[in-house]
UniProtKB/TrEMBL annotation:
Residues 1-25 have a biased composition (Polar residues). The keyword Transmembrane applies. Residues 1-90 are annotated as: Disordered. This is Uncharacterized protein. The lineage of its organism: Eukaryota, Fungi, Dikarya, Ascomycota, Pezizomycotina. Keywords: Membrane, Transmembrane, Transmembrane helix. One of its GO terms (cellular component) is fungal-type vacuole. It comes from Friedmanniomyces endolithicus. The chain crosses the membrane at residues 196-216, 237-255, 275-294, 343-366.
Amino acid sequence: MPEMQQRGSLVSHSAVSLTSNSSEPTHGEPDTHGPQSLPPWIHTNDGGVSSGDAHTLPQAPDGTVPNSRHYKPPPTHYKPGRKWDHLRSASPPLLSAPIAEHQERWRDFMHAGPNYVEQQAQTRVVDQAWLDEHMPYLNQQWTEQEEAEAALEKAKETTGFSGLMYGGKWLISPERQERTVRLFSRLLLKNPYVPLAFRLTTLAFSAAALAIAANIRLNINHVNHDKDPSNQCSPRASMYMALCIGCVAIPYVGYVTWDEYMSKPLGLRSVPAKVLLLLCDLYFVVFSASNLSLAFDTLYDHRWACYDDTFAIIGGTGRQQITYDVPATCPNNIHICRKQKSLTAMLLISLLAWLTTFSISVMRVVEKLRPD
């Protein structure tokens, strides 16, 4: 390679020069340790820059251009306290005349306008007897009850809560009542486990009502298999309705519970999906209320299992009552009656759970969809 050849020639040239210098006398000869010429591949900065190497050197920065865009406001020279310098004069702020003369100049102008006329209060001096008769509370001493009542009125105006007071002392202060209400409201609307608790309550009592209704159906079938014709029991509508509602409510509650925690948030759903989520709970509330009404009617029917009557009373009170001999639709059976009472209780608690769940769902939807 050329570079290797140049390096080899340089080494050989140096060796020859050293041998020749060592053989010759040192008097009048240059120093052998002086600097030698550099190879062509080494760049130096002590000389001029060639045109080929000029583009590799850093360029000088361009001159600055002031910002002259049309939307940029011109620079201001505002200083605090110098806004009204153009209206000031060099003369000191001294009065040119006494104060009395200035008042005389403006007196006519002041009297020309409408002036406020002070109203003189009408007073009269009364004796102590008149005060005792018309203002008896002035002689009363200060009590803690009055201070507490004043604090109660002030708390109503500021917080909107009255609190609970007994004997002039706070049992529940308005501030504590306000904190409790806010905590309960935040727990009811923000806590993710509150709907789950009510959903599980609804699921449990709906399953219990379904099981009791099925057990009543089995007992009625067992009674109807008796050969005695007088020992026959007819099923009632509350039992069938409890079976139908329970069979639909249990999978629905399970699906809605899964949907609330596993599906997308309520704000990302369409309007029909939001409305359907509320209307389904409302449908179950309506049917549960109807089922509870039928259960109470069955429980207090004198011709069914809880009574041993074979007649029916129609009409009002006294002589207006008309009694008919109506055969009993179910003989007195303590087991069926006891289960009917249990079914009525389960349906009542289930209806309350449905109502609470529906109310919480509506409040949460309104809380999430309000504009503020």
